[in-house]
Amino acid sequence: MTAPEGERKPARVVVADDQTVVREGIVMLLGLLPGLDVVGAAGDGEEAVRLVGELAPDVVLMDLRMPRCDGVEATRRIRSEYPGTQVVVLTTFADDESLFAALRAGARGYLTKDAGGEEIVRAVQNVLSGEAGLAPGIQLRLLEKLSQAEVRTTAAPPEPPDGLTTRESEVLVLIGEGLSNQDIARKLHVSTATVKTHINNLFAKTGLKDRAQAVRYAYGKGMVRPRAE
What we know:
By secondary structure, this protein is an alpha/beta fold. The chain contains ten helices and six strands.
């Protein structure tokens, strides 16, 4: 059973950023936000990986451009060596190359440094709940990019892949269209708990690990197609 909001333990966070002023500013900001507990700060990716091994935080807020070991490589190592720790990218860079590299490395959230405190808290809570912690503009960009890359010319809807049931396929399509669990529940007239069960089942069947992978999968299988302009 999930603890009520007031009883939920603060998320233990490590901040990784090579600019001292920026790093200290982020740590100070997070210290003022409810639900977060900063347990460490790293000046580069190598130190971030080390701190994760020592402190076992729930989430790392990860800059991308850092010396010795950049944020993408650090994310890849953390997700491989310490899968209990999630990564939310917090960076100045919002270009497609940075976005896709971070998501491929295993980041489950992606924010730019103009994000407000509430947005950071929401992203951390989302990734810890199994959701994607993507800023709305980033999620839209991701969907648009995938739409352009995965256009399908066949008109007939494909059969459900990988042994998915019809309902699991419906849930996957709605994930691909960017709907939250609550939105999916309302659309399918079921509870959010039922939606989560379907998501767990389809993730197990397809080998998917998070919603960002599910979006790519849905487009790659032709289950979601770009809307006509």
